[in-house]
Every structure is written in structure tokens, then in C-alpha cells.
Amino acid sequence: MSRRPGSYTKGVAKREEILTAALHVIAEKGYRGASVREIAEAAGISQAGILYYFSSKEELFAEILRKRDEVDTAAYVNDVPGHWLETMLQVMQHGTEVPGLSQLYAQLSAEATDPEHAARQFFANRFAKFGQAFADDIRAQQAAGTISPDLDAERFGRIAIAVADGMQLQWLIDPSVDMVDHIRYALGLLTGRPTD
Questions:
Q1: 52 within a domain of the structure (yes/no)
Q2: CATH of the domain at 92
Q3: In which residue ranges does the UniProt entry place its DNA-binding region annotation (predicted)?
Q4: What is the full DSSP assignment across 32-53?
Q5: Which tens digits make up the pLDDT trace of 118-141?
Q6: How many domains does the chain have?
Q7: How far apart are CA 21 and CA 12, in angstroms?
């Protein structure tokens, strides 16, 4: 059976509408406080309707994180070489304002260690994409002469993600930890440009 013209486009638009509603629900109620029912209500759809657009709750939550990255990228990322590290710090600061989304990220990243989990590919792609962005940032700063050419840009990219994710977990457990300050300090040490 063929789809009606425009039905695919409408389906994509409805998925995006659901994801946008979910971002708001989780930001407001937290990861544990946001049920599929509440997300469905916020999107003006039934719970069964959610499962029409997403094959499982796990896929829904992985797509919510994808949408969060898309929104954060639009809000904070620019194409100026050498600014990705500062951009990441802005994104992490924003994460402190929407702790429910940070909780979702931490929970799903742990669950995605299961090879069968719906979020596994999202995290693999995310780590590769952002690791490469950090590496490109380091290479731009090396070309500008502001960072030592001896720093391995590819390794740094992966380490930068590990530092950010690790500090986010510590902040989720103890919100008195200044996550952004610690990340800035650690990445400054790694690049040979420590800050106080």
C-alpha cells in the first residue's frame, strides 16, 4: 500500500512536534517525573499514538536526546574555528538549567552500553561527531599557534567528551559541584592553557 502524498512529511513533522513537547515536559518535570502519558498529552496525542511514531519508549527517549542536541547546536554552535570548546561549556551551563534532560542523558548513556538498546547508535554517532568537532577545534587552534602542535587532536576529542560526561554525572549527584568550572579547568590543563 502506498502512502498518500505528503503523509511522510506530516509524519516527520508530527515526530518533531512530539519531541519538542517532550523536551519541555522533561525540562519541567525531570526524567523520572516525565511519563509517556504526560509527553503524549503535551503533544496532543494518545499514548498509542506515540508508539505509532516511535517503536519503543527507548527509541522515543533516544530521539529526545537527538532533538536536544539539535536545539543546543542551533542555539550555541557557530562556525568560527577554535570556539568549539567554549561552545561546549555554554551547552553544559545550559544543562544545569534543565537538569531533567541531563538526567535523561546520563541514564540512557549507561543503558546504551547494552548492544541491543535503542539509544546505542545515537551515542556512538554522537561521540564520533562531537569528538571530531573537538579535534577540528584543536587543529584550528594549533594552526593559529595558540595550542601546542604536540597535542593529539583525535585523542583530545574523546577525552573532552569523557571529562564533560563525567563532570555532568558528578554534578547530577552533587549539584554544589561547579561542573562548568571543573570542565574548563581540566580542558585548560589538557591544552596547556590552564585557567584559575
A1: no
A2: 1.10.357
A3: 35-54
A4: TT--HHHHHHHHT--HHHHHHH
A5: 999 999 999 999 999 889 988 988
A6: 1
A7: 14
The torsion of the CA quartet 161, 174, 178, 25, rounded to 10 degrees, works out to 70
pTM (predicted TM-score)? 0.85
Give residues with Cβ within 8 angstroms of 51, minimum separation 6.
none
Distance CA 77, CA 83 (A): 9
* Residue 131: partners with Cβ closer than 8 Å, 6 or more residues away: 154, 157, 158, 160, 161
Is 60 exceeded by the pLDDT of residue 3? Answer: no
Residue 136: give the domain boundaries.
Answer: 57-191
The residue among 98, 101, 100, 76 whose CA lies nearest residue 88 is 76
User: How does residue 195 score in pLDDT terms, banded at 50, 70 and 90?
Assistant: low
- Angstrom distance (rounded) from CA 102 to CA 26: 10
